[in-house]
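# step 3/5: fold
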Amino acid sequence: MQGIISYSCPANISLIKNFGGYRKRTQGNPSFSMTLDKAKSETTVKYTHSKEQKFSFTVTINGVESEYLKKRISHWFEKVVPVFPWINQTSLEISVTIEDSLIPFVGIYTVMCSLTFCLSVIANHLGKLDAQPQLQTVSSIALLDSENAARSTYGGFVGLGKNAAISWSSDKYASQYQREAMIYSKLNDTILSFDNSSHNLSELNPEDLYNHPYLESRIKHAQINTNQFLRALDDGHWDLFEHIVENEALTMCALFLSSGTSKFLPSSNLIEWAQYIRDKREEIECPVTFTFDRELRLHLIYPPIAKEKVIKLLEESPLTYDKLLHDNVGKGPKMLKDSFEQ
């Protein structure tokens, strides 16, 4: 059998930040994220499968070989062979496309999420699955790469980790939250990246997090914040939503600052912009909140009614940024192509 399959997958922004980790099945707290729309990658897999075929794969990003991505995929393949043993008789040509303007805003985990979808569909074509894969199954396999990949399986608001307030939640896969009030269904996310954001949280040693002296306190704190966050989603309580999102962002900065051998320091631009947003939103009565991602980009989150005020706030700011993207809540991964022949 041979064929070509393509998926697009958007990034997500974590609002309740995980600290610890479910990927390694270590102690950690549940996380919640919002899936975006425009910040996305497209992954195409050209495959050939037969009993005589030996496993091999190549990978490119915008036509250029990527050793980093190849190493990450190779590490992930080692974990998914028990799920997809047929990979050992398959050759894969993986090509990733990311628009130049989106490169500063798209994480590699979006590729891993798309790749999980692609392999799951191939498995179905090979008769290795009884039916089209369920999103929970795809998410659990994507989790073998990262929590971000697992949460990007869905659109809207997505949770990962067992939570007593959500009966369908699990530590083994992410799930979509569908009870949010109307005010959150069309949220905007304007993302600002900075020149000096190269010293990001992704560079930190995971062991520093797992052994952090405040880990247990953080888990309890996150549970309280999660419950309040869900209440804000259910009731449309914007002030509470704003408070929790910012508290999570600043708490994570404090935890990373105090973790083991960390040399992390947030950039002055990031802090100045956060303070500017806080000062100006009161002045102009604008419902906008902020958070940070692991690459220390600033995310301004607000309902559609505030868009004009936010744009004006950005235009009038004396502060600088490198690149900007206006994004919004998205619907999740999308199949772009699926053709095969026996």
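# step 4/5: annotate
The longest strand covers residues 31-49.
# step 5/5: archive (pending)
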